[in-house]
Amino acid sequence: MENRIIYGQNNDKRIIYKTGGRPMITYNINWKEFPHMTFAHTAILPYHAIDFPGNEKSVELSYIEKGSCELCIGGDRYTLPENGMLLLVKKNKISLRGDAEHVHHTVNLYGDYETGSGCGILLPLYFPITPRLEYLHIKLKEVITEFRLRDAAAQLKATAMTLEILSEISRVYESGADGAAHLYSPSEYLLSNGMKRYVAENLNRRFTLAELARELGKTPNYLNSVFKKVNGIPIRQYANQERIGAVRLLMQNYRLSLKEAGESIGITDQSYLSRLFKKVMGISAQKYFAEYKGETVTSLTSAAPLSPQRPAPLPQDRGSQSRPYDPPASHPD
Fold first, then answer.
1. What whole-number distance in Å separates Cα of residue 281 and Cα of residue 288?
2. Residue 306: what pLDDT?
3. Residues 301/200, Cβ–Cβ less than 8 Å
4. Scanning 94, 172, 222, 268, which has its CA 20 to 30 A from the CA of 58?
């Protein structure tokens, strides 16, 4: 019988293969503090070799674009094919080898976390990228570009984008084939980003969905459908959330009144602004700022060293063989 992963059946950090009892490692990662990004890079190498000693407060997410890898972790060995996401939880001792030409895109998050509490998000060690999941590696490359800007705001945004990727991997991984209808294509992801840019560029005025459709050359119904598919909410709801987010930022960080903050984003009707604030936040502006007075609102809107020598082979485990990773039969494509 063919090995495959059973989705959605969590057995204390592991998803079990259908036959043979061979586990594919997964983790329930629960961040105990907000992580920060320490490096993000693209590496093009004639071969790849790296070892992690363990006990590091880091999680590394890589897209293996070219070249399979042999991984040794926790006494288990895996052969991982190219075109997949690899999650390295560096509290474990890890060895990674690739003898052929190798290309990967990597980001590293540093911060304290736990994996054995049963809380947090479920993430696999390796996640194959199918055509309908290509938006994930596109977004990872965007994170690397953002991080290279080097300013504090860009690095905060890069961290948030990485956490969003991890959340999306967890969602797709747990839903398996049943979640295929909720996946979106790279073109839908890019179109959604285009809509978000339009919202950001027109935050100080109210615009109609018809205006946005003309700008992007699509029909209003199609745009709303794609945006809701990618983000889970309609475009108008997203725009309202962004505008109220701007109001909160201006009032709490710059001590503007509700009227002044509203006028700065093009809302001159204070009665309408008050209703919109309550609709988005669930409580009135007066009650919100009385409760959260003094807090600061954050705007929503190093490469690893390369081995100079040929890689040493992975440590041999007598009687143990490297296990090829077979993408599960139930994986949506």
1. 8
2. 34
3. yes
4. 172
Strand 69-73 and strand 76-80: the pairing is antiparallel
Cβ count near 38 (within 10 Å): 16
Nearest to 212 by CA among 199, 227, 225, 203: 199
β-strand pairing of 76-80 with 323-324: parallel
Nearest to 256 by CA among 201, 265, 275: 265
C-alpha span between 261 and 152 (Å, rounded): 25
CA angle 121, 123, 126 (to 5 degrees): 170
CA distance 279 to 294: 23
Q: Which helix (H) or strand (E) holds 185?
A: none
- Residue 210, both tokens: 């018809």
d(Cα 174, Cα 121) in Å, to the nearest integer? 10
Q: What is the mean pLDDT of residues 164-191?
A: 74
**Ordered DSSP codes for 208-273:** -HHHHHHHHTS-HHHHHHHHHHHHSS-HHHHHHHHHHHHHHHHHHHH---HHHHHHHTT---HHHH
Question: Which amino acid makes up residue 320?
Answer: S
Domain range annotation of the chain: 14-183, 190-291
pLDDT number for residue 64: 95
The Cβ of residue 246 has, within 10 Å, a number of other Cβ atoms equal to: 21
Q: In the CATH hierarchy, which top-level class contains the domain 190-291?
A: mainly alpha
Residue 53 pLDDT greater than 80, yes or no: yes
Is 163:131 a contact under the CB 8 Å cutoff?
Answer: no
How many CB atoms sit inside 10 A of residue 319's CB? Answer: 5
Supply φ then ψ for residue 126, to 5 degrees: -140, 140
Whether residue 301 has pLDDT greater than 70: no
Give, in words, the CATH class of 14-183.
mainly beta
User: Which residue stretches of 76-118 are H helix?
Assistant: none
Examine the pLDDT at 119 and tell me if it is beyond 90: no
Tell me whether residue 244 is exposed, middle or buried, using C-beta atoms within 10 angstroms of its C-beta: 0 to 12, 13 to 18, 19 or more. buried
